[in-house]
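Blinded run. Sample ID left blank on purpose so nobody reads anything into the name before looking at the predicted structure. Input follows.
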Amino acid sequence: MIEVENRVVPMVSQSEKTAEWLFLERDHRVYAFLTRGLSNCVKEDCLVDAIHASSTDNYPEESILNTLKPGDRVDYRASYWSSRGESDPTVPETLTYKLISKLCLISEIHVQPFQAYFQFGIPIYSSKAMKFRVGHPNVKIDVESDNGHESAAAQGSYCDKFVWTYTSPEFPIAQENILQKFKLPEPVLCVGGILQVELLGRVQRQQLDGLYYICVSHVQVVGRPLLPTFDVEILDEAGKCNLKYCPVERSLCQSSKKSSEGGESGSPRFHRFRASLRGWEQMILNTLLGARADLVDDDSDEDDV
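Blinded prediction complete.
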């Protein structure tokens, strides 16, 4: 389905063989635009917001929002997220984030445990291991709400608010105050823009209360996001979705000069089509991992798509 200026444009009635070729030609163009829509450079700041922490000891001073900032100090103050204390060292914690794009190819996760330099012995409150999962929201989530960064006790369970499409293997975490990098064997495609880090096992007791805590200074995601030309709309819990393509927005992002010299000033024309997540993943991974892709010249054809 392609939508131009909010009108569905059907294929002209042709013979069955001709009509099939027109459909294939149209889809090829959009897939070619999608290949070009991926950022050419790897970004180290693919997280755009923090959605939820499974627990927080002191909110907002020890909020998950602090993990978006590099390092462990901001304006001469400690910057970190802290879980609530637990007597059981096996209790896990989760940190849930919003990615910079709803379609993002992730290659590395970086995590920095926090060292409490203001406590006796300067303990490091790391976890024993971590793993992460990616997916999309099951329901609409207000990521701008401050309440979304509070504990699950105040929010209710978040377990059924997301649909996870990939879970990584476990990576061991050293009890060191450094940014620890975990590189995936192959890039992972996230469709939906949600990433969750799960911290497994506790190693450090707090001397004051004898409870185990996990504290994190910074979380970083390295990958290649989709450019603003495209957007993904999740339609249902099964992962069915629409991919939206807006060539006018793409040209504005790539060249403000072009738009100032007489580009279209009216509302953008949206081109939409449906495809399976498996199809997107195979096409994008093949392109980025070295397989050759045949691209069409969108500069001359995109207005006719």
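Unblinding after everyone has recorded impressions. Residues 67 and 218 are 4 Å apart (CA to CA).
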